[in-house]
Amino acid sequence: MPTHSSYANSISTSLKTQFIADALAMPVHWYYNPMDIEKAFPGGIQQFEAAPDFHPSSIMSLHSTSRGGRHGGNRNQEEPQIVGDFILKGRAQFWNVPNVHYHHGMIAGENTLNAHCSRVLMRCLSEASGHYRSQAFLEAYIGFMTADPPEHPDTYAESYHRGFFANLAKGRPPEQCAMVTHDTPSIGGLVTIAPLVFSERLRGTGMAAIQALCREHLALTHPDEGLMQVCDRYVNLLCGLLEKPDEEGIKTLLEEAGKGARGLDVAALANRNLPDSQVVGRMYSSACYISDSWPVVLYLAYKYRNDPWLALRVNTNLGGDNVHRGMVLGAILGLTNDDVANEWFDQLVEHRAIGREIAALISSATQKRV
Fold first, then answer.
1. What is the model's pTM?
2. What's the domain count of the chain?
């Protein structure tokens, strides 16, 4: 078994690949018709691109600005205006206009809000010698999300963000602010998990304890047992890949991660050599729901395990919730291959700051404690 310090390079590559996957998919996030991607970007996304002005699938105008989920007509005047007043300050005017891009105004190589939340957690972990403390994360998360002006370039906040701050505005304690909506069990909940797994693994924390910490973390924003069961398998997969298994070992880990996901046999599915658009969009939805997005991640990871850059491009050009799928996919494939990180990381707009945060996380978690 490798020493914990020997994990450092794989962890760095994995986290860098996460941020690359996020920025790559950003311009066509939540495009639900792949032909619309082809129309906007002939040949599909092949590199970092800016968000187009027009988004053909955008329903941001239907989403509530005062709570999680969609609005039901006229807003209750007693409800606080979350978007604009509490979070996303200065950006509320983009929400009630049809076909505005979710990531309006973002340039090539910029990262989305959830990726920035992953950075918030990395900074928290670094400040605590790599150990997770939910209260520290909540304080940092609230400070980050309510900053004026915003400390990120995004225009959209997922339902869980809006629901959390709607409850916070009502006076609930932060640890009780998670709002359950139809999309609580979504792939976006797993975006911040990899830094937590890696930090605790570097400290020598055992698998079961890491899974428990990840459940504690998810409960703050995504309290759903089905999602937590997938998270358990995700933790197991990341920890297994950290041990640098051979090709057969990688395939076995990916196959094991699919068990429990409606009986998914990821190897059999990949070996059918179906068009990706038939698997994603017909057999499984390209939407955020974890019941479909987790099988899609495993399918792409298994089929394209030897070509991570192709895996990330395919994921991007399949549309749907490709940003959050991509971050999970990137974390997985970055543990087995450093080609994507080596070639693309320096093209991220904030690569220097992200690189420092990754290095600080690793250093903090591996430092000797007395």
1. 0.95
2. 1
